[in-house]
UniProtKB/TrEMBL annotation:
GO biological process: proteolysis
Top EC group: hydrolase
Chain positions recorded as Zn(2+) 3 binding sites: 214, 225, 354
Cellular compartment(s): Cytoplasm
Record-given protein name: Methionine aminopeptidase
Subunit structure, interactors included: Associates with the 60S ribosomal subunit of the 80S translational complex.
Similarity section: Belongs to the peptidase M24A family. Methionine aminopeptidase type 1 subfamily.
Length: 376
């Protein structure tokens, strides 16, 4: 399948997410199979012209290139496990309007209350707190769905960050990842072999990629947290199966949630679904409690079988389940030198889905679920 090729001239696109075949600046229609959108764009930059020629000769040359010809890989000596590369410079830090309340780490980067929580028991939220969680989670889902609607070949992960950032502040909410332990952006975007915590940068999403978008936001004192993995254009069957299996494993885990169920049985439910479909379950990162604190007790909600998590689900508890599944049998991971981006060790792809859940008297409410699910 050959996809619509968008004008990639930095002087044309100039930060606008391309949504059509026409160049958004000069409004000329691109010639299929090339990056030219017309004389004016061509004239605008010789460096871009050179890039176009390189692309025509070798269509994979742009796989890890951003929209600016001045983009670069900040870790040229790092031994990458797959084909995805960071494409810097990162865009400048996005600002938050004055009137939006911030979580405590917004300035210093340190989530002090989380660090002081120690081995506290999971909190049971009261009716008022639950109502606030519902709202924060509903807004998180809206923002995730907004970002997902922008996924297409030609958009950069930094542009997805901009979409998330703007959709979040429009709702008078703060994007929870921004400056959390120093994270530089408003959302995590994890492409192909990146398992989680990818930093949005200038890399252009390519037809055939998969991307996870992990949205969390802080509204009226409470955090919501939700993520999903999405195909970029047409993807191969293996990647489709990975995404489907990951979603199925999360849904199976949600089904066992009710008062009295054991936290450790979540992993016992997820891992067989993964294994039966040729996937391994990541162990290093787990689900977590969430309310006024972004990450809190229960601090460890493992997604793998035979885990030793202690604790029983109780009415009024809120936590996330967010399985990360790798293609193949290797569940381990490595980090890029940015200390955030976690990738598979063998370069195989990884997918993730996450929901924030409330344990109720009768079972479970998916606080971040799509609206029809929530009303069931
Ligand atoms: Zn998340
Ligand atoms: Zn989470």
């Amino acid at each position: 399948m050959s996809s619509a090729v968008l004008c990639q001239s930095s002087s044309c696109i100039n930060g606008n997410p391309p949504s059509r075949m026409e160049c958004p600046t000069c409004n000329k229609v691109g010639i299929r199979g090339s990056f030219f959108c017309g004389q004016e764009c061509f004239k605008a930059g010789w460096k871009t012209h050179k890039l176009v020629h390189d692309f025509v000769k070798n269509p994979t040359s742009l796989v890890n290139v951003g929209k600016s010809v001045d983009s670069y890989n900040p870790f040229p000596d790092y031994n990458f496990t797959g084909t995805v590369r960071p494409v810097y410079p990162l865009s400048p830090k996005r600002s938050i309007p004055e009137h939006i309340p911030r979580p405590e780490y917004a300035i210093t980067g340190e989530p002090v209350s989380e660090l002081n929580e120690g081995g506290a028991a999971p909190r049971i939220l009261n009716v008022t707190e639950i109502e606030k969680m519902r709202m924060a989670c509903r807004l998180s889902r809206e923002v995730l769905d907004t970002a997902a609607a922008h996924v297409r070949p030609g958009i950069t992960t930094d542009e997805l960050d901009e979409v998330v950032h703007n959709a979040t502040i429009e709702r008078n909410a703060y994007p929870s990842p921004l400056n959390y332990r120093g994270f530089p952006k408003s959302v995590c975007t994890s492409v192909n072999e990146v398992i989680c915590h990818g930093i949005p940068d200038q890399r252009i999403l390519q037809e055939g990629d998969i991307v996870n978008i992990d949205v969390s936001l802080f509204y009226d004192g409470y955090h919501g947290d939700v993520n999903g993995s999405y195909p970029v254009g047409k993807i191969d069957e293996e990647s489709e199966k990975l995404i489907r299996t990951t979603r199925e494993s999360l849904d199976a885990a949600i089904k066992i949630c009710r008062p009295g169920a054991l936290l450790r049985d979540i992993g016992k439910t997820i891992e067989p679904v993964a294994r039966a479909n040729g996937c391994a379950v990541v162990r290093t990162y787990t689900g977590h409690g969430i309310h006024e604190l972004f990450h809190c007790a229960p601090t460890n909600v493992p997604h793998y079988a035979k885990n030793k998590a202690i604790g029983t689900m109780k009415t009024g508890m809120v936590f996330t389940i967010e399985p990360m599944l790798n293609l193949g049998t290797n569940w381990s991971l490595v980090h890029w030198p940015d200390d955030w981006t976690a990738t598979t060790v063998d370069g195989k792809r990884s997918a993730q889905f996450e929901e924030t859940l409330l344990i109720t008297d009768t079972g479970v409410e998916v606080l971040t679920g799509k609206v029809p699910e929530r009303e069931m």
